[in-house]
Specification:
Shape: globular
CATH architecture of the largest domain: Up-down Bundle
Number of strands: 4
CATH class of the largest domain: Mainly Alpha
Number of domains: 2
Structural class: alpha+beta
Distance between the termini: 38 Å
Strand content: 5-15%
Bound molecules: glutathione
Strand order of the largest sheet: 2-1-3-4
Helix content: 40-55%
Order of helices and strands: EHEHEEHHHHH
Protein backbone atom coordinates (compact mmCIF):
# COMPACT_ATOMS: atom_id res chain seq x y z
CA UNK A 1 0.00 0.00 0.00
CA UNK A 2 1.36 3.45 -0.84
CA UNK A 3 -0.26 6.78 -0.15
CA UNK A 4 1.30 10.19 -0.78
CA UNK A 5 -0.33 13.34 0.59
CA UNK A 6 0.56 16.76 -0.78
CA UNK A 7 -0.12 19.16 2.05
CA UNK A 8 0.57 22.42 3.79
CA UNK A 9 -0.63 23.24 7.27
CA UNK A 10 -3.13 24.89 7.90
CA UNK A 11 -4.79 24.41 4.49
CA UNK A 12 -7.66 22.04 3.83
CA UNK A 13 -5.06 19.28 3.48
CA UNK A 14 -5.29 19.06 7.31
CA UNK A 15 -8.60 17.22 6.80
CA UNK A 16 -6.85 14.51 4.86
CA UNK A 17 -3.98 14.29 7.34
CA UNK A 18 -6.44 13.79 10.23
CA UNK A 19 -8.41 11.18 8.27
CA UNK A 20 -5.23 9.22 7.51
CA UNK A 21 -4.17 9.41 11.17
CA UNK A 22 -7.59 8.25 12.44
CA UNK A 23 -7.50 5.35 9.98
CA UNK A 24 -3.96 4.47 11.07
CA UNK A 25 -2.71 4.48 7.49
CA UNK A 26 0.97 5.08 6.80
CA UNK A 27 1.60 7.78 4.21
CA UNK A 28 4.35 9.85 2.67
CA UNK A 29 3.97 13.60 3.14
CA UNK A 30 5.10 16.10 0.53
CA UNK A 31 4.75 19.36 2.42
CA UNK A 32 5.64 23.01 2.36
CA UNK A 33 4.92 26.18 0.37
CA UNK A 34 7.13 24.91 -2.47
CA UNK A 35 4.59 22.12 -3.15
CA UNK A 36 2.37 24.53 -5.12
CA UNK A 37 5.03 24.86 -7.85
CA UNK A 38 5.76 21.13 -8.17
CA UNK A 39 5.01 19.52 -11.54
CA UNK A 40 3.91 16.40 -9.66
CA UNK A 41 1.15 18.42 -7.96
CA UNK A 42 -0.02 19.78 -11.34
CA UNK A 43 -0.22 16.17 -12.54
CA UNK A 44 -2.78 15.45 -9.80
CA UNK A 45 -4.72 18.70 -9.37
CA UNK A 46 -5.63 20.62 -12.54
CA UNK A 47 -5.36 23.90 -10.59
CA UNK A 48 -2.27 22.85 -8.55
CA UNK A 49 -4.20 23.17 -5.29
CA UNK A 50 -3.97 21.34 -1.98
CA UNK A 51 -4.82 18.79 -0.84
CA UNK A 52 -3.86 16.25 -3.47
CA UNK A 53 -3.28 12.54 -3.01
CA UNK A 54 -1.83 9.54 -4.75
CA UNK A 55 -3.14 6.17 -3.64
CA UNK A 56 -1.35 3.25 -5.29
CA UNK A 57 -0.31 5.73 -7.97
CA UNK A 58 -3.87 6.91 -8.59
CA UNK A 59 -4.38 10.70 -8.40
CA UNK A 60 -7.23 12.25 -6.41
CA UNK A 61 -8.07 15.85 -5.45
CA UNK A 62 -10.76 17.74 -3.43
CA UNK A 63 -10.68 17.20 0.32
CA UNK A 64 -14.23 15.76 0.47
CA UNK A 65 -13.56 13.24 -2.28
CA UNK A 66 -10.22 12.22 -0.75
CA UNK A 67 -11.52 11.86 2.82
CA UNK A 68 -14.60 9.93 1.70
CA UNK A 69 -12.47 7.61 -0.44
CA UNK A 70 -10.04 6.88 2.38
CA UNK A 71 -12.81 6.19 4.92
CA UNK A 72 -14.91 4.18 2.44
CA UNK A 73 -11.98 2.03 1.38
CA UNK A 74 -11.20 1.15 5.02
CA UNK A 75 -14.72 0.35 6.28
CA UNK A 76 -13.45 -1.70 9.24
CA UNK A 77 -12.44 1.58 10.93
CA UNK A 78 -16.08 2.76 10.97
CA UNK A 79 -15.04 6.38 10.39
CA UNK A 80 -17.98 7.03 8.05
CA UNK A 81 -21.32 5.26 7.59
CA UNK A 82 -21.62 3.11 4.46
CA UNK A 83 -23.25 4.44 1.30
CA UNK A 84 -27.00 3.72 1.19
CA UNK A 85 -27.57 4.32 4.91
CA UNK A 86 -29.40 7.28 6.41
CA UNK A 87 -26.33 8.15 8.50
CA UNK A 88 -24.36 8.47 5.27
CA UNK A 89 -27.01 10.76 3.79
CA UNK A 90 -26.60 12.98 6.86
CA UNK A 91 -22.81 12.95 6.46
CA UNK A 92 -23.18 13.98 2.79
CA UNK A 93 -25.68 16.66 3.79
CA UNK A 94 -23.33 18.29 6.33
CA UNK A 95 -20.32 18.09 4.03
CA UNK A 96 -22.23 19.78 1.20
CA UNK A 97 -23.71 22.35 3.59
CA UNK A 98 -20.29 23.18 5.02
CA UNK A 99 -18.76 23.67 1.58
CA UNK A 100 -21.62 25.69 0.11
CA UNK A 101 -22.89 27.71 3.08
CA UNK A 102 -19.72 28.35 5.09
CA UNK A 103 -16.44 27.49 3.41
CA UNK A 104 -17.15 29.20 0.07
CA UNK A 105 -17.47 32.52 1.89
CA UNK A 106 -14.35 31.98 4.02
CA UNK A 107 -12.39 31.17 0.89
CA UNK A 108 -13.69 34.20 -1.01
CA UNK A 109 -12.52 36.43 1.83
CA UNK A 110 -9.13 34.67 1.96
CA UNK A 111 -8.63 35.23 -1.77
CA UNK A 112 -9.38 38.92 -1.35
CA UNK A 113 -7.26 39.23 1.79
CA UNK A 114 -4.00 37.73 0.58
CA UNK A 115 -4.19 35.55 -2.54
CA UNK A 116 -5.25 37.85 -5.36
CA UNK A 117 -2.83 40.52 -6.62
CA UNK A 118 -3.38 43.63 -4.51
CA UNK A 119 -4.95 45.60 -7.36
CA UNK A 120 -7.69 42.96 -7.74
CA UNK A 121 -8.68 42.71 -4.06
CA UNK A 122 -12.15 43.92 -3.07
CA UNK A 123 -12.33 44.54 0.71
CA UNK A 124 -16.06 45.29 0.37
CA UNK A 125 -16.71 41.54 0.22
CA UNK A 126 -15.41 40.86 3.77
CA UNK A 127 -18.53 41.88 5.73
CA UNK A 128 -20.83 40.31 3.17
CA UNK A 129 -18.92 37.02 3.34
CA UNK A 130 -18.76 37.11 7.13
CA UNK A 131 -22.54 37.59 7.37
CA UNK A 132 -23.16 34.71 4.96
CA UNK A 133 -20.72 32.37 6.73
CA UNK A 134 -22.29 33.25 10.09
CA UNK A 135 -25.72 32.19 8.81
CA UNK A 136 -24.27 28.74 8.11
CA UNK A 137 -22.38 28.67 11.41
CA UNK A 138 -25.59 29.51 13.29
CA UNK A 139 -27.20 26.41 11.75
CA UNK A 140 -24.33 24.28 13.06
CA UNK A 141 -24.60 25.95 16.46
CA UNK A 142 -28.29 25.05 16.64
CA UNK A 143 -27.61 21.46 15.49
CA UNK A 144 -24.89 21.04 18.13
CA UNK A 145 -27.21 22.09 20.95
CA UNK A 146 -27.57 18.95 23.08
CA UNK A 147 -25.22 16.77 21.01
CA UNK A 148 -21.44 16.42 20.94
CA UNK A 149 -20.92 15.32 17.31
CA UNK A 150 -22.58 16.02 13.99
CA UNK A 151 -23.99 12.60 13.04
CA UNK A 152 -25.37 9.86 15.35
CA UNK A 153 -23.72 11.70 18.23
CA UNK A 154 -20.42 9.88 17.75
CA UNK A 155 -17.16 11.25 16.38
CA UNK A 156 -16.87 10.54 12.64
CA UNK A 157 -15.47 11.80 9.36
CA UNK A 158 -18.25 14.38 9.34
CA UNK A 159 -16.59 16.06 12.31
CA UNK A 160 -13.16 16.01 10.66
CA UNK A 161 -14.74 17.68 7.64
CA UNK A 162 -17.11 20.18 9.24
CA UNK A 163 -14.62 20.82 12.06
CA UNK A 164 -12.02 22.24 9.71
CA UNK A 165 -14.38 24.94 8.40
CA UNK A 166 -15.54 25.75 11.92
CA UNK A 167 -11.93 26.14 13.11
CA UNK A 168 -11.18 28.31 10.09
CA UNK A 169 -14.13 30.54 10.98
CA UNK A 170 -12.74 30.64 14.54
CA UNK A 171 -9.34 31.76 13.24
CA UNK A 172 -11.24 34.62 11.56
CA UNK A 173 -12.95 35.53 14.87
CA UNK A 174 -16.43 34.56 13.70
CA UNK A 175 -17.44 31.99 16.30
CA UNK A 176 -16.99 33.78 19.66
CA UNK A 177 -20.72 34.27 20.19
CA UNK A 178 -21.63 30.67 19.26
CA UNK A 179 -21.41 28.68 22.50
CA UNK A 180 -22.16 25.24 21.03
CA UNK A 181 -19.72 25.69 18.14
CA UNK A 182 -17.05 26.96 20.56
CA UNK A 183 -17.49 23.89 22.79
CA UNK A 184 -17.43 21.65 19.68
CA UNK A 185 -14.07 23.13 18.59
CA UNK A 186 -12.70 22.44 22.08
CA UNK A 187 -13.88 18.81 21.82
CA UNK A 188 -12.27 18.46 18.40
CA UNK A 189 -8.98 19.97 19.47
CA UNK A 190 -8.91 17.76 22.58
CA UNK A 191 -8.77 14.67 20.38
CA UNK A 192 -5.20 13.35 20.34
CA UNK A 193 -4.83 13.19 16.55
CA UNK A 194 -6.48 16.53 15.74
CA UNK A 195 -4.13 18.70 13.64
CA UNK A 196 -6.34 21.82 13.70
CA UNK A 197 -4.64 24.67 15.52
CA UNK A 198 -6.34 26.71 18.24
CA UNK A 199 -7.29 30.27 17.27
CA UNK A 200 -4.45 32.72 17.94
N1 LIG B 1 -12.36 22.64 -2.53
C1 LIG B 1 -10.97 22.30 -2.41
C2 LIG B 1 -10.17 23.55 -2.05
C3 LIG B 1 -8.78 23.52 -2.62
C4 LIG B 1 -8.06 24.82 -2.34
O1 LIG B 1 -8.49 25.90 -2.76
N2 LIG B 1 -6.96 24.72 -1.61
C5 LIG B 1 -6.19 25.91 -1.28
C6 LIG B 1 -5.54 25.72 0.07
S1 LIG B 1 -6.77 25.55 1.34
C7 LIG B 1 -5.11 26.10 -2.31
O2 LIG B 1 -4.50 25.17 -2.75
N3 LIG B 1 -4.88 27.37 -2.68
C8 LIG B 1 -3.88 27.74 -3.62
C9 LIG B 1 -4.48 28.50 -4.77
O3 LIG B 1 -5.65 28.88 -4.73
O4 LIG B 1 -3.74 28.70 -5.73
C10 LIG B 1 -10.78 21.21 -1.35
O5 LIG B 1 -11.59 21.15 -0.40
O6 LIG B 1 -9.84 20.42 -1.47
Amino acid sequence: MSITLYELNPTRSARVRWTLLELGLPFESVAGPEVFAMPELAEIHPLSKLPALRDEGRPLFESAAICNWLADSHPQAGLVAPSGTWSRALHDQWVAFTLAEIEAFLWHTARNLFLLPEAERVPAVYPQNEAAAKRGLAVLDAHLGGRDWMVDDRFSLTDIFVGYAVCWAGWQGMTGDLANVTAYVERLQARPLCPYQPAA
